[in-house]
Write a structure and sequence with these properties.
About 50% of the residues lie in helices and about 10% in strands. The chain has 16 helices and 7 strands. It has helices at about 20, 40-45, 50-55, 60-65, 75-85, 95-100, 115, 140-145, 165-180, 200-215, 220-235, 240-255, 260-270, 275, 280-290, 290-305, and strands at about 1-5, 15, 25-30, 35-40, 65-70, 105, 190-195. Strands 4-3-5 form a 3-stranded mixed sheet. Helix 5 (about 75-85) crosses helix 10 (about 200-215), helix 10 (about 200-215) runs antiparallel to helix 11 (about 220-235) and helix 13 crosses helix 16 (about 290-305). The chain is elongated.
Length: about 300
């Protein structure tokens, strides 16, 4: 049975059969500083993008040896690419699972599930939660029109999400998440994926996006950006453990030259949640030391809030 892989590939490699994949020679990848070796069917590697097609089918030494070394790619990132290549999706680290350590999470059917996962599906039960509208601000007139004998409310810390500029930025970020969440793909249940307790979900999705952008895998770029947006939208920034992981994402922004599409999503989120992130001393250091980060976040605030 022919399989139409819904990816950005060369016209001649758009249709593969299970026979094409299973009969193709394994292509070896040596990944990261630890030189961990992985193998993928070469026909499936070539189908991912024109760049991978040239890697497998060319006169270059790598194509002749059916082997390439990628020292600057993290093992965790490559494992998720392998999962995507065979299923059309990849497991996303769960914050609770990561924080709670080593439980394995179900993530895909045993065996290949290329055909089923290659078809985009929408599951209504998995729709992203819509951002709740922020409470309306009391006007100065309403405040002054209260009777003098009215008992005053106790003063408390003002919710920064109710401050107009941050309210606007949060709404803008929620709108961006909504735009990205139009297409959904599900990993069939079955295979257990044991998550590393130290895995940072936010950095994981960002790294997968950078990998996909470098190799020209459009579908994987879309999936990883959606997953990052969804993870950020549901993040409890006021929790120190979550905030630390988000600050690590900001560090990643400073350390790497990120594609604009990825950087703009991250900095819009940072702008919308600046008061909560500002609690972190490390974030304040990054903001002060790294011009790229500070300019991007302030720019997102000005543009996003229409200032």
């Amino acid at each position: 049975m022919a399989l139409e892989l819904l990816r950005d590939v060369n016209p001649e490699t758009k249709v593969l059969t299970y026979k094409d994949i299973a009969s193709s020679k394994p292509f070896r990848f040596t990944i990261g500083p630890e030189k961990q070796e992985f193998t993928i069917h070469s026909a499936l590697v070539a189908a991912q993008s024109p760049a991978f097609d040239r890697l497998v089918n060319s006169e270059f030494k790598e194509a002749q040896d059916f082997h390439v070394e990628l020292d600057n790619v993290e093992e965790d990132t490559f494992v998720r690419f392998v999962q995507f290549a065979y299923t059309g999706q990849y497991c996303e680290p769960d914050l609770d699972v990561v924080a709670g350590a080593s439980n394995a999470t179900p993530c895909g059917e045993a065996g290949l599930a290329i055909e089923e996962a290659a078809i985009a599906t929408t599951d209504p039960s998995e729709e992203l939660p819509q951002a709740e509208p922020a409470p309306e601000q009391e006007t100065l007139v309403e405040e002054r029109s209260r009777p003098i004998l009215t008992k005053k409310k106790k003063k408390g810390k003002k919710n920064t999400s109710d401050v107009p500029v941050f309210q606007i930025l949060n709404e803008k970020f929620a709108g961006r998440v909504s735009e990205l969440s139009e297409e959904k793909r599900n990993v069939p249940e079955g295979v257990l994926f044991k998550e590393n307790p130290t895995t940072n979900p936010f950095v994981t999705h960002a790294r997968v996006f950078v990998f996909a952008d470098y190799w020209g895998i459009s579908k994987l770029k879309d999936i990883s950006l959606r997953k990052l947006a969804k993870a950020l939208e549901g993040a409890a920034v006021k929790k120190s453990a979550t905030r630390d992981r988000i600050v690590a994402l900001m560090q990643y922004c400073c350390d790497e030259a990120l594609p604009e599409e990825l950087l703009s999503l991250i900095t819009l989120f940072a702008a919308a949640n600046l008061p909560a992130l500002w609690i972190s001393g490390r974030f304040r250091e990054l903001f002060g030391e790294n011009k790229k980060l500070s300019v991007s976040v302030v720019g997102a605030m000005i543009t996003g809030a229409g200032l």
